[in-house]
Amino acid sequence: MTCIGIDLGTTNSLVAYFSEDGPLLVKNALGEYLTPSVVGLADDNKTLLVGKAAKKRLIRFPDKTRSLFKRSIGTNSEFSLGKKQFSATDLSALVLSKLKQDAEDFLKTEISEAVISVPAYFNAVQRQATKDAAEIAGLKVCRLINEPTAAALANGVLDRENESTFVILDLGGGTFDVSILEMFEGVMEVRASSGDAFLGGEDFTEALAKHFSEQIDQDWKSLRSQDKELLLSVADQLKCALEGQNRASATVKINGISHNLEVDNDGFERLTSNLIDRLYRPIQKSLYDAGLRAEQVDRVILVGGATRMSAARSLAAKVFRKLPERNIDPDHAIALGAAVQAGLIKQHTALDDVVMTDVAPFSMGIEANHRENGNTVHGAFAAILERNTVLPASRQQYFETARDNQTKIELSIYQGESAIAKDNVLLGKMTVPVPPKPAGHESIEVRFTYDVSGLLVVDVKVLSMNSTVTTVIENLAGAMSSNEKKARLKALEKFKIDPREQELNRALLESIKHMYEVLLGDDRAYVMNLLGRFEAALQTQDPQKIEKERAEIEKAIEQIEANFVRH
Amino acid sequence: MSDTETAWPWSVLGLKDTCSDPKDVRRAYAKKLKSIDPSADIDGFQALRYAYSRALKITQNNQDTQDSRSVSQGLPEIRTPTNDNTYFPPQPAPTPTSDGSKTVELDQEIDSSDYSIPENFFKRFNELTSYKKTLTLEEWSPLLSSVALTDPVVAQRVEWMLQENLAKNIGYYRSSINAAKLCNAIDERFGWVSDGIGFLKRYPHRRNLQATVSTIVRQNAWRFEERQKQIFTPKETKIKPVPATYWAAAIILYFLLLAI
Q1: Does residue A264 have a pLDDT over 90?
Q2: Are A353 and B34 an interchain contact pair (Cβ–Cβ within 8 Å)?
Q3: Using CA atoms, how far apart are residues A190 and A187, in angstroms rounded to an integer?
Q4: Listed residue (A132, A48, A54, A60) closest to A84, CA to CA
Q5: What is the pTM (predicted TM-score) of this model?
Q6: First to last CA, chain B
Q7: Yes or no, beta carbons of B207 and A377 under 8 Å apart
Q8: Rounded Cα–Cα distance for residues A89 and A98 (Å)
Q9: At what angle do helices A500-518 and A521-540 cross, to 10 degrees?
């Protein structure tokens, strides 16, 4: 049975599979590899739109369209689509089921298993929510793979003979990850991973959009959400235009006044310098954890769409004193790598001599008092399994009772890097009975065993009694039960999904209307004309005529989109 | 000592002899690794991985004796696996070049304000640390945001110097808002609070400093949020005219109160 690889991104998502010729991407119904991670409600309030059609409605229907929900996965935030409430897990499930459908359509087989990539710096709660989303979408998760590790697999499989140390800098739409890997003799070993779960290309876009709102004398917070989305969309287009040029501008109308918005490379770098600064720390942290100096890295590989920004590229060059590489399209690498991992799990013959080991991206441990020179630090975090330990791993530490005649020890298990336990993510709790004795006279051995699939087993042994208490932390406290998942699936199934053959028409209609909203004056009239032409063609219900018109109008819209940004 | 003990770590890797080339160690490890299933035999995998990291370290030390990063060199082997990370010994701070009394005026005279050059950077750094009261964020921020810090070697040295200095002046830091700002900036750069575990690994003897800095940063978190807001909206907020309905409501309330 085929297991697919999915890159569930903040901005865009992709799906790939492992074939005889290596990993291959799957095109969606629109013939595109990238499916925007956007979900919206159509005008009838019954049909759910996922992907490009929904993205093109962001400006016109901000209350019925949701994007960037990956940033909130694992939290309790609710997103409204019209009057209906959705969680980030629900919305992710909708994107996943769309990708599943695309793969099934392409491979002509039913698919029920997937490897899904998550940012290396996602914590256990965020990982669990991603798994839940997949199960709602009818996909069993064979493995969650860290995004930079996936990118490394995609790059490493291309070049299996070489012995090298390389670093992957993965700046996606919403997250930043750094991984350092060593590759030799078909072994791919992740040495260290680090990152920032709240830093990505969308932050750069937002900084630019906020700058524009200031320029046109509008307070960002009191802008109407339509105008916010319009500024964000224009900022995104200008940001992308800066990749090849030094200057870009466009004209938009806000509150009835048209404004010329302009940005050049220097200005953009100044606006985003505090974001660029935040890229340094994860890089230094992972170099330190890997025990390497920057010059010991042979190759620097950039993945994630946001690494197209020149500031990100020059930062990489500055730190590593090397020209960064982009052998594979930075948007594609993660999905391709997830497909390689799927191939590894299914023991594909083409991958016979490839082994990959990954690391734990976070430290795991318990809350304990720390005594030093007569001072006691209460509620300190004792890390038992340190971050960047090669997995699978099993480590133990010893603790003793703190009070006289203590009858039980309560263990709170945390994940994170803060020296204060409560600032980390709580994974679970357990209680161990101990015989009453003077303080410090009873000891326990706490053993953490963590495997590649993210399963943490905690064994506690009371040394004087030789008794063991075991807790398996598989599902976190916040995880959904299978009944809950079924209920969510039922709720989501109530919505209509456009039939596949309608998707092309729907996407084009929404693209035309989107351009109409963005443009001014004569340009607007021209787009109106296109809309009329296409609607007339749709009315004929003649597939050939519709296809012919669609092709021509698509070309015209593409041209208009390109002309919108001036260089 | 038995034969198997002398052969560790080589025997675990399936090597008959000690070897001196890291390449051979890698090859042996790869071969062994492919013959086991790590998830089924965690202990076996850990023993193999640990033997590999030790063997690699030994061969690398042989190859490059100048490599000063390994502090375990010459020490007896550790028997139980702890972790695979190398510890960077902090490099000693350069001795201050000028005497402390003149340093504050100095920075206006010399044209060495380009802190991207490590030499200027450390000069200024020593000036600041030798004069106690200049420890404010305004004075530090040109240094903390300098490109010189993109060099990990410089960054490590700076972190070492900072923690030495802060530990010495810990009383001052407890009481000042300037210190709170500085601690926050240091955390943004070096993660002393957000990555407290990492900090304590680098400086195990600085648990007190870590606790103090954590408290300072946490207690002042709201101030930094304020600062963030100021950064994002630097313009003065305009005072909006109060809508007439509000006035009307206020007047009615006033009369109601009078009536009571």
Answers
A1: yes
A2: yes
A3: 10
A4: A48
A5: 0.81
A6: 98
A7: yes
A8: 14
A9: 160
- How far does the CA of residue B114 sit from the closest CA of chain A (Å)? 17
The tokens for A156 are 């490493």
Q: How far apart are CA A349 and CA A353, in angstroms?
A: 9
Residue located via tokens 């957000």: B194
pLDDT score recorded for residue A565: 87
Q: Are A50 and A90 in contact (CB under 8 A)?
A: no
Compute the distance between CA of residue A343 and CA of residue A18 in angstroms, rounded to an integer: 6
Chain B residues with beta carbon closer than 8 angstroms to that of A353: 34
From A276, which residue of chain B is nearest by alpha-carbon distance?
B145
A249 burial (CB, 10 Å; 0-12 / 13-18 / 19+) is: middle
**Sheet strand arrangement including A456-462:** A393-400, A443-450, A456-462, A467-473
Residues contacting A498, CB < 8 A, separation 6+:
A42, A47, A49, A53, A506
pLDDT, chain A, mean: 91
Tokens of A87: 């969680």
> pLDDT per residue over B66-116, tens digit each?
444 444 444 444 443 334 333 333 444 444 444 433 333 334 444 556 777
To the nearest whole Å, the CA of B17 is away from the closest chain A CA by 20
Contacts of A421 in chain B (CB under 8 A): none
- Hey, where are the domains in chain B? 1-89, 100-232
Q: Which of A127, A81, A111 is nearest to A5 (CA)?
A: A111
Tokens of A185: 């003799």
Tell if the CB–CB gap between A318 and B201 is shorter than 8 Å.
no
Tell me phi and psi for residue B112, to 5 degrees: -110, 40
Question: Average pLDDT per run of 10 along chain B, which is 260 residues long?
Answer: 63 85 90 90 92 89 54 44 38 41 39 72 79 67 77 81 83 71 84 89 88 83 53 42 66 72
Residue in the block written with tokens 């900084």? A207
**Alpha helices per DSSP H over A161-254:** 201-215, 225-241
A190 vs A161, B13, B18, CA distance in Å?
Answer: 17, 20, 26
